[in-house]
């Protein structure tokens, strides 16, 4: 993978991320020299620290010749000091046409509708964090 830029984590819309994320960790390949393993570990931890400190994600792409298609990804800092999350991100060719100029034309909903929606949402359970262990899809009944 080749780094092509960085972006604020808050500047990434979830709608441009697709697929399953992967956990990225520094190599522990036994074929490398000890000094090279140690250097790789330190560089990787420094990258994790810098991304977490700046609250940024690294934009990376597969390093392929210009005639082949490339995959683009975001490397997000994780809560672990020595791992990153790799997520696939859409690029220009994968987006459907969108009308960005008409974005501000929405009217504020009436107070009755806002109250009704608020009451409906208040009836639902509210969680501080999403815990996947609490949700069931009934795949294994």
Summed up:
The protein has 141 residues and is α+β, with helices and mostly antiparallel strands.
Please give a structural write-up:
The chain has helices at 34-54, 111-122; strands at residues 2-8, 17-24, 56-61, 72-77, 84-89. With 141 residues, it is α+β, with helices and mostly antiparallel strands. It has a five-stranded antiparallel sheet. A hairpin with a 6-residue loop joins β4 (72-77) and β5. The radius of gyration is 21 Å and the shape is extended. The two termini are 41 Å apart.
Distance from first to last alpha carbon: 41 Å
Tertiary shape: extended
Q: Could you tell me the radius of gyration in angstroms?
A: 21 Å
Tell me the strand order in the biggest sheet. 1-3-4-5-2
Alpha plus pi helix count = 2
Helical residues, percent: 10-25%
Write the topology of this structure.
Elements (H helix, E strand, L loop, with lengths): L1 E7 L8 E8 L9 H21 L1 E6 L10 E6 L6 E6 L21 H12 L19
List keywords for this structure.
141 residues; alpha+beta; 5-stranded antiparallel β-sheet
